[in-house]
Amino acid sequence: MAEVLVYVDHVDGAVRKPTLELLTLARRLGEPVAVALGAGAEATAATLGEHGAVRVLTADAPEFADYLVVPKVDALQAAYDSVSPAAVLLPSSGEAKEIAARLAVRIGSGLITDAVDLEAGDEGPVATQSVFAAAYTAKSRVSKGVPVITVKPNSAQVEPSAAAGTVEALQVSFGATATGTKVVSRTPRETTGRPELTEAAIVVSGGRGVNGAENFSVIEALADSLGAAVGASRAAVDAGWYPHSNQVGQTGKSVSPQLYIASGISGAIQHRAGMQTSKTIVAINKDSEAPIFDLVDYGIVGDLFDVVPQLTDEVKARKG
Amino acid sequence: MSLRIVVCVKYVPDAAGDRQFADDHTVDRDEADGLLSELDEYAVEQALQIADDADDAEITVLTVGPEDAKDALRKALSMGADKAVHVEDDDLHGTDVAGTSLVLAKAVEKTGYDLVVCGMASTDGAMGVLPAMLAERLGVPQVTLLSEVSVEDGTVKGRRDGDAATEHLEASLPAVVSVTDQSGEARYPSFKGIMAAKKKPVESLDLSDLDIDADEVGLDGAWTAVDAVAERPARTQGTIVKDEGEGGKQLAAYLAEQKFI
Lengths: 320, 261
Description:
The complex is a heterodimer. Chain A is α/β, with parallel strands linked by helices. Chain A has two domains: 3-169, HUPs (Rossmann fold, 3-Layer(aba) Sandwich), CATH 3.40.50; 197-319, TPP-binding domain (Rossmann fold, 3-Layer(aba) Sandwich), CATH 3.40.50.1220. Helices cover 28% and strands 28% of the residues of chain A. In chain A, strands 9-8-7-10-6-1-4-5-11 form a nine-stranded mixed β-sheet. A five-stranded parallel β-sheet of chain A has the order 14-13-15-16-17. Chain A has a two-stranded antiparallel sheet with strand order 2-3. In chain A, strand 8 (126-131) and strand 9 form a beta hairpin. The termini of chain A are far apart. The mean pLDDT of chain A is 96. Chain B is of the alpha/beta class. In chain B, the strands form two sheets. Chain B has a nine-stranded mixed β-sheet with strand order 9-8-7-10-6-1-4-5-11, sandwiched between helices. The longest helix of chain B is centred in the N-terminal third of the chain and has 16 residues, at 38-53. In chain B, 51% of the residues are buried. Classes of the chains: A alpha/beta, B alpha/beta. At the A-B interface, helix 5, strand 7, strand 8, strand 9 and strand 12 of A face helix 3, helix 4, strand 7, strand 8 and strand 9 of B. Strand 17 of chain A pairs parallel with strand 13 of chain B. Chain B: It comes from Streptomyces montanisoli. Chain B: Residues 24-214 form the Electron transfer flavoprotein alpha/beta-subunit N-terminal domain.
């Protein structure tokens, strides 16, 4: 059976959820062989094996942390050369997309980014993509070389499937360009204790109607009652009320949770582009004419400062 | 020695308008109103600021696209870029990102460069991978997804606000950078700038000028194929309730019914 390379996104050995989703999709195409790089790489093997990875190729070197992107491309290319896979899958993070891009150019392969589904086809993997602010769905495939495909979070269910997960050391030699861009300093983002925005099952977002940074506590309280991530519209981010890392929309994150709650967000195209593939959409807005209401499964026309706290209390009461 | 900056820009269908696909599944660029991609305005702006800080700099704005793509070049020139290069060739129709990165790499090399500045992504294809591909093809460092950028003594420095961490990066020139929409508002062209742009040189190049064969680009030369596109069915509006004091409770009841609580 053909092998499929899966690039592992992990933090010191803790595998992030989108990688486990990738393993589900990889199994549709062949036997997953995972590639884990950097500090803690070997510690990923147990989790990856539980989710179908037959082998886990690992490498660690200071270059992975000290220089941007290219050392990881060198390593992934080494894995590609040794495995001769049927496809290479990566998560659609900013960094992994750049790794995918450079690998694709090097091996002369077509690249598909931001797939939301993946199936085996007669002419190789068929990717589904949401395009033009999710107004269209496209079916694409790679027509030259070994397909390199990045997949968005929440595109598949995490499905445990026991496999060997045998750790093998990957031999990597870094090329001349590996040390081109130095990472002078790295400051990890402060953790909020909330789920990662793109990975969350529920997202609660606030927009212009929140009317001030201090009022975002209302949005956060609802999010915490539901175990949700917090998002913000571009208007709220541009006003400085919430960090850009939480922006949902065309130039921020694109999310596809089970439930999306938009509070005080009118629903401009810029925002819709980032959330309209959510399974269930709920909105609270004072303006009954707001375009967000065209998308919703359930909408409340009202003041979010009345509705959201009442909802939060009710959620807490129902959860006991 | 003059700092040679090349800004890569894309002419895209207006994201606020009705965007469609042509019968061959390429982006329909005839029917829609086109413009300079909003995200590339940030690249032009940062190039202008870098040039302002340099003793001597020249900004060339570069695009690959049909005749109308000149509009994007004119906008960038009116913002303050010095000259433009337009790669235009009928055989380019349907070129994918791999082919575009090849064409840009050849055009950048032909133009001569110390620094290439790109936006973080186009607003139509929205892949965000072109700067990395371009750096790979040029064999120079990539310093990408920057919210802050500066050039000093032959070194480019920048801040990358990633998902997991904020990183400060640096690389020696020549290099490829990309900047995000957090890098700073782009300036509006002044009337003087608009008038001046009309006199600025726009060089036209075709594939033969860049020693690229037609079969390396276009739909047939693409490394990816789009087999089908379909409009997403419009979401049907669900229940809309006016809050009469019980809105939060009604919403909670709905969420419970949908098993979210």
